[in-house]
Amino acid sequence: DSLLLQLTGGDSLLRDTLLLDSLRRDSLALAPADTARTEKKRNWFMSDSMSLSRVCWMSIPIPGYGQIYNKQYWKLPILYGTFGTSLALYFHENKKFKPLKRRFEEITSQEMSRTEELDAVQSEMIRHNTRRQIYLFAAIGSYIYFIGDAAVNYATNDVSSVKKATTLATICPAAGQIYNKSYWKVPIVLGGFASMIYIIDWNTRGYQRFKKAYRLRYDYDQKVAAHNQWKEDVKNDPDLPEPENPASSTDEFKGRYSADFLKNLKNNYRRNRDLSIIATAGLYILQIVDAHVDAHLKDFDVSDDLSMRIEPAVDYAFIAGTGVRPVVGFNFSINF
Questions:
Q1: What are the two backbone dihedrals, phi and then psi, of residue 308, each rounded to the nearest 5 degrees?
Q2: What is the pLDDT of residue 135?
Q3: Residue partners of 148: CB distance under 8 A and separation at least 6
Q4: pTM over 0.85
Q5: Residue 268 and residue 275: Cα distance in Å, rounded?
């Protein structure tokens, strides 16, 4: 202020004018930096040139993000309608399924013989379980479909068909094969996944079954051992309290199998389940590699000027001691 007063000769009005002009220049100098920071924050969430990978990754936690980015807003009601309805119906059926399952486990933990109550509870439980699985698959299917739809309709940057095929195969098995128009591979991929899921479910149910049987049989053996020991000890101490008397039947197999046998079955089912999970992961990676390589091969020149042929061939050769004998093999030819 004192310097401004000296420069302006004591004129306060001129001093204030110079001061405001200086502040205005400072604000203009800082404005571009603030604008750049704001633009950077905006670009991180919704940029005009986001990569395909980022659009797909953002669509996972934010359903419909890809459709908003691609400006296909009319698809949002379909997405949230199918996904939300399927999810609501799943929770509705799951709410009915859980008490039936608890009741089924209560009955089977006491007696495995077929009764009218057990049949009725099991039938109702299976019905609600089937419905909830259908609704869950519908919710997951719609969720995955719209992530793939965002990748297919992405057109901001120049993205090769190889990257799109690989991205789609990563999002959903067989989607990359469909994008490459290798339709004959789709039943193989989906059939392989369906088979592996069935095998995993089969071994999981077997593991849970024999795990429960082993636990019941082990508890039964412990009670029998304690009761037999009490019979020996009561001779020396007549006032010794009697332990819990073991039940007449232990598990669904009525005691026909030993605890060690049931334990081995339990471990076998668990090992098969774990191996099936590893095989499913391998199949998932394999179909991604197949989609990637197949998309690359689509661009190769496979005309008559550049081709490879493998065909069966029959020839005759003279063999000492046996004469002329036919020889069967293959002809391998390359044209370039």
A1: -130, 135
A2: 94
A3: 168, 171, 172, 175
A4: no
A5: 11
| CA dist., res. 296 & res. 161, Å (int) | 8
* Amino acid at the residue 216: L
| Structure confidence at residue 40 (pLDDT) | 47
* Per-residue pLDDT at 36: 46
What's the per-residue H, E or C state across the chain? CHHHHHHHCCCHHHHHHHHHHHHHHHHHHHHHHHHHHHHHHHHHHCCCCCCHHHHHHHHCCCCCHHHHHCCCHHHHHHHHHHHHHHHHHHHHHHHHHHHHHHHHHHHHHHCCCCCHHHHHHHHHHHHHHHHHHHHHHHHHHHHHHHHHHHHHCCCCCCCCHHHHHHHHHHHCCCHHHHHCCCHHHHHHHHHHHHHHHHHHHHHHHHHHHHHHHHHHHHHHHHHHHHHHHHHHHCCCCCCCCCCCCCCCCCCCCCCCCCHHHHHHHHHHHHHHHHHHHHHHHHHHHHHHHHHHHHHHHCCCCCCCCCEEEEEEEEEEEEECCCEEEEEEEEEEEEEC
Give the pLDDT confidence score for residue 136 in this predicted structure.
Answer: 93
Average pLDDT per block of 10 residues along the chain, 336 residues long: 50 56 59 49 66 86 89 91 94 92 78 74 90 92 90 84 89 91 91 93 91 84 74 64 61 78 92 95 94 82 63 75 74 72
Question: Which residues have C-beta within 8 Å of that of residue 43, sequence separation ≥ 6?
Answer: none
Spatial distance between the Cα atoms of 130 and 123, rounded to a whole number of angstroms: 11
Q: Note the pLDDT of residue 244.
A: 64
Sequence-distant (6+) residues with CB within 8 A of 215 are: none
Compute the distance between CA of residue 64 and CA of residue 146 in angstroms, rounded to an integer: 7
Residue 242's pLDDT is 63
Angle of CA points 325, 328, 334, to nearest 5°: 135
